[in-house]
Amino acid sequence: MRFHTRKWIKPEDLNPNGTLFGGKLLAWIDEECALYSIIQLENSKCVTKYMSEINFQYSAKQGDIVEIGIEVLKFGTTSLTLKCEVRNKMTRSTIITIDKVIMVTLDEAGKPTPHGKTKVEFVKDRLQDKA
Ligand SMILES: CC(=O)SCCNC(=O)CCNC(=O)[C@H](O)C(C)(C)COP(=O)(O)OP(=O)(O)OC[C@H]1O[C@@H](n2cnc3c(N)ncnc32)[C@H](O)[C@@H]1OP(=O)(O)O
Predict the structure, then answer these.
(1) Could you tell me if the CB of 101 is within 6 A of ligand 1?
(2) CB 62 within 8 A of CB 14
(3) 91 CA distance to ligand 1 centroid (A)?
(4) How far apart are CA 129 and CA 122, in angstroms?
(5) Distance separating alpha carbons of residues 45 and 78, to the nearest angstrom
């Protein structure tokens, strides 16, 4: 799994219990999965179709640095199946895992459309291929 984005837990991210608000974390994960899919599938219309069981394992507190990791499980025809983990950057404690996130590429009419991708690509390689 590759860990991409880092987040710094600020006062506005906390719940009344003084720890990281779960809804905030889910919003970060959803955005991360969407961005990852848009870049991988080269389609700006990627939506979240499905998220499997969400397991909050550990909390985070103000001042903690967390990082969001994504792994591709499967390239489908119109979908991309991802696995996600968020962990504490310094202690490596797992905060949350989501075993399956299904993202779907849409056409202009908002219908699922084949993305034509079969493997993970890196933007730097695409740019080299074009040069
Ligand atoms: C980033 C964001 O926050 S986006 C905002 C939140 N998301 C949304 O608003 C999406 C709302 N949902 C929709 O618009 C529709 O459900 C759509 C367009 C995404 C999908 O429409 P559907 O008619 O269900 O599509 P369809 O049945 O063709 O499935 C599309 C793909 O998703 C997969 N899929 C659909 N449901 C599931 C599921 N429950 N579990 C696993 N895969 C699924 C299908 O297998 C298919 O993949 P494939 O083409 O790779 O084989």
Answers:
(1) no
(2) yes
(3) 35
(4) 11
(5) 11
pLDDT, residue 22, reads: 95
**What is the SS3 assignment for 104?**
strand
- Counting ligand 1 atoms within 8 A of each CB, the residue from 73, 104, 105, 111 with the most, and so the one to mutate, is 104
- What ipTM does this complex have? 0.96
Quick one: DSSP state of residue 96? E
Res. 130 pLDDT band, cuts 50 70 90: confident
**Residues 89, 117: Cα–Cα separation, whole Å:** 31
Centre of ligand 1 to C-alpha 118, Å, is 18
Give me the residue spans of the domains in the chain: 2-128
User: Looking at the domain that runs over 2-128, which CATH code has it been given?
Assistant: 3.10.129.10
